[in-house]
Amino acid sequence: MNICVVGVGYVGLVTGACFSEFGLRVTCVDKDASKIAMLRQGQVPIYEPGLAELVGKNINEGRLSFTTDIKESVRNALVIFIAVGTPPDEEGGADLRYVEEVARSIGQTMNGYKVVVTKSTVPVGTGKMIEGVIKESQTKPCAFDVASNPEFLREGSAIEDFMRPNRIVIGAESDQAVAILEDLYNPLYLIETPFVITDRATAEMIKYASNAFLATKISFINEMANICEKVGADVHKVAARLPNTTDVNSRLSTQ
User: What are 71-85's pLDDT values in tens digits?
Assistant: First the structure.
């Protein structure tokens, strides 16, 4: 199966390299010609343990390639991952101009059924927006699906997080799109990774909720550390006895 990853930043590059390690043929696309030239030589512009070796290996084995030509990449791919940046706009929200730009290019170029997947961190409703942009941009009607497949990668352990995640979240409105994405992640299914299959909006919300929950936990434990320091308590032992996510889920289910 051929896939295309648009954007070779942290998320896009890790995603492309890891999917190629699964045995898929992956083309990574970016407008930055100098960055693409570096990657073609196996030079990785970001530091992530093991990433340079993974990129070099899969380039040499013919499964991973890099280009600035989004049109050819879209035509040749069944699945297209959008992994471009969504920086804050002037009001503090997500600037989706790059996401819209990619969606427009996909609509103008697609030559058959495609699954378009958001990897970028995007607000709830972005999938619906992408769907509208693609439809408006098509030169001739083509069937397609838009799905959400959020990432949960940590800097410093991103490859391990991709290869052995604690869950895979797939949000889509059609069984066909779900089946195709499950097929992409088949190596993880074989090691019994939990799959969360839901609608698109819920998948988008899972990403934001996960980020917010992590930020809350970090802020909370920092405050606990300050208090422990003042009263002479061991913050590590306190943290080890705090309720985990499973406890939270069980409490929610009884409300």
Answer: 999 999 999 999 998
197 and 227 housed in the same domain: no
Closest by alpha carbon to 16, among 110, 153, 127? 153
User: In this structure, are 243 and 179 located in the same domain?
Assistant: no
Residues 134 and 166 in one domain: yes
- Note whether 128 and 239 are same-domain residues: no
49: nearest Cα among 160, 152, 166: 160
- pTM surpassing 0.70? yes
- Tell me, yes or no, whether 96 and 143 share the same domain: yes
179/156 same-domain check: yes
CATH number reported for the structural domain that contains residue 22 in this entry: 3.40.50.720
Domain count, the chain: 2
27-53 pLDDT, tens digit per residue, is 999 999 999 999 998 899 988 999 999
Domain membership of residue 201 as a residue range = 2-207
